[in-house]
Amino acid sequence: MKSKFYFLIAIFIFLCLGYKPKEPKILIIGDSISMGYFSKVKEALATKAIVLHNPGNAQHTGTRLKKIKDWIGKEDWDIIQFNQGLWNLWQ
Questions:
Q1: 68 to each of 17, 33, 37, how far by Cα in Å?
Q2: Residue 6 pairs with which residues in a beta bridge?
Q3: What is the reported pTM?
Q4: Is 45 exposed, middle or buried (0-12, 13-18, 19+ CB in 10 A)?
Q5: Which residue, among 28, 38, 31, 32, has the nearest Cα to 62 in the 3D structure?
Q6: Is 43 within 8 Å of 18 (Cβ atoms)?
Q7: pLDDT digits (tens, 9 = 90+) for 73-86
Q8: For the segment 38-50, what is each residue's pLDDT rounded down to a tens digit?
Q9: Where are the domains positioned within the chain?
Q10: Which of 53, 67, 72, 64 is nearest to 91 (CA)?
């Protein structure tokens, strides 16, 4: 009976102290507009998610198509948000 009690206490401690839910990973891929709001999104979700932006300016869809595999990498993203904005008007 004592061993069952200690086992339950150990499980309780593990669950309370050792369990940390996985934070969702969000990738924002976009141009200068997305670079402008990225820091606000990252700050707003700081305690809820890991928010990253592609390096630099993603420019137009052509650039995105060339570099998307590098930006996504082998990461298991929960959300990928795209914003190419007005760049596509000139391409």
A1: 38, 18, 20
A2: none
A3: 0.74
A4: middle
A5: 31
A6: no
A7: 999 999 999 998 77
A8: 999 999 999 999 9
A9: 21-90
A10: 64
